[in-house]
Each structure stands twice: as C-alpha cells, then as structure tokens.
Amino acid sequence: MFAFIFSNQILADTPSTHGDSEKGKEIATGVCAGCHNADGNSVIPNNPTLAGQHPEYITKQLMDFKVEGDSPAKRDSQVMVSMVAALSADDMQNIAAYYAQQKITPATTTNSDESLLEVGKRIYDGGNLENNVPACSSCHSPNGAGIPPHYPKLAGQHPAYTISQLDAFYRGGRTNDINHSMQKVVLRMSAQQIKAVAEYIATLH
Ligand code: HEC
Ligand code: HEC
Questions:
Q1: For ligand 1, atom 40, which residue shows the shortest CA distance?
Q2: What broad class describes the main subcellular location of this protein (predicted)?
Q3: Cβ partners under 8 Å of residue 112, min gap 6
Q4: Mind listing the domains of the chain with CATH numbers?
C-alpha cells in the first residue's frame, strides 16, 4: 500500500544498474574488505553484509554518504563518509555490481528465544494494528529479498546492524529514506519490537 503511493515520485532518480564488477572487485577487495569482507559477507556484526544486495540500493547509499560542497552528507557515518570521498559515480556503480553478484552467507542468530522470534515474525509479516505499524513484508517482500530498485534486501543481515539502522531512523540520525518511509514506520515501534524484528530478519533466507 505505501509502496504504491511512493513509487511514482521516486522512480525519477533511480540510479543506473550498469557497473563493471571486475573493476568494482579491485576496490572492494583492496579498500573495503577489512570491514565488509572480500565477498561482502561482513563477519563484524556492526558492519552490514553487502553480498547479494541490490546494486541500485548500494549505489544510492554510497552517493548518500558523499559530501557535496557545503551541505552535509544525506546519510551520516564518519567511517563511510570518509570511505566514499575518493569514489567517483562510476566506481560506486562498479562496486555495487560486484557486491550484488556475491552470494550471501546469512547471519547466524545467537538468539535462542523462540517467543522473541515469533513476535518478530508477526510484525514482519503483518505489522501491528494497535500502533499502526505497517507490515515490513509489504515493502521488503515476504522473504526479505526486497523489491528493487528502492526497497533493500534485509534477509540474513546481522541483527546488530539492523537494530543500529532502525535506531538511527528512530532518533533521526538516518534521514536518507525517501519520503521518510522508514522513519514513519519505526517511530511507532518499541525497542523490544525493533529487537524482535531484527532477530527475525537474520533468520530469513
Ligand atoms: C572501517 C570499516 C569500514 C570500511 C573500511 C568500509 N565500511 Fe562500509 N560500512 C561500515 C559501517 C560501520 C557501516 C554502517 C554505517 C552506518 O551506521 O550507517 C557501513 C555501511 C556501508 C554501506 C551501507 C549498507 C546498507 O545496507 O545500507 C555500504 C554500501 C558500504 N558500507 C560500502 C562500503 C564500501 C564500498 C567500502 C570501500 C570503499 C566500505 N564500505 C568500507 C564500515 C566500513
Ligand atoms: C513503506 C515502505 C516500507 C515499509 C513498510 C518498511 N520499509 Fe524498511 N525501508 C524502506 C525503504 C525505501 C528503505 C531504504 C531507505 C534508503 O534509501 O536509504 C528501507 C530501509 C530499511 C532498512 C535499512 C537497510 C540497510 O541495509 O541499511 C531496514 C533495516 C529496514 N528498512 C527495516 C524495515 C522493517 C523492520 C520494517 C517493518 C517494521 C520496514 N523496514 C518496513 C521502505 C519500507
């Protein structure tokens, strides 16, 4: 439902999907691997796994980390803002093409609390009528594969990273979501619901 309202407005600035993955591989393995691993399967829970992510979403994020002139970056992260400073638009598309081709190794959930996962699944699949939380599946698809180009893949992501982003949308530290579609969602969620849904997302394949 939300997806329909937004899609017409955001189609205009869809980044192109054509990148040279061989050139992207050189940068990814040379510069980014220390934190995201050579194949984009980060082993550090706070760093996102990029393997298998849609190229349009990766390119958009890299562009959003970039500082242009005097205006601050659209997405704030000290580390990533400095990482993209030297990248050209072509570099970004090449890197995105490389990561998109890598196969994801889903995060292993250390969580063994079945009832927490059940709460997470309920919110993911059906939202929460009491607080008007929309179903995550309506934009990110039922299995977490996302809907390119605008709705990122979430399946198999590290819970710690997912929580950090939901938290950032909540507190306003991340505001690069077009039409604030994510901020509107998380403002209605409790910390416990955020944790539950993040743990559930890690189990999706
Ligand atoms: C020192 C560690 C480090 C290095 C090196 C690094 N990153 Fe990151 N990267 C991070 C962290 C931490 C985040 C999460 C930032 C946040 O909290 O928003 C991130 C986020 C990202 C995202 C956003 C992913 C998403 O799901 O939204 C992309 C894309 C990305 N990095 C690509 C790269 C590329 C390309 C390079 C190399 C040019 C690189 N990173 C180098 C630590 C690093
Ligand atoms: C109305 C559509 C919509 C709904 C509903 C929605 N999302 Fe999103 N979500 C988005 C969009 C669009 C983005 C990408 C924002 C951007 O471009 O940076 C996003 C990004 C995210 C990210 C960041 C991914 C990353 O790699 O950094 C997470 C995590 C996320 N959503 C989780 C959820 C969860 C959990 C729910 C359900 C409680 C949900 N979303 C519901 C549209 C939606």
A1: 32
A2: periplasm
A3: none
A4: 14-101 (1.10.760.10), 114-203 (1.10.760.10)
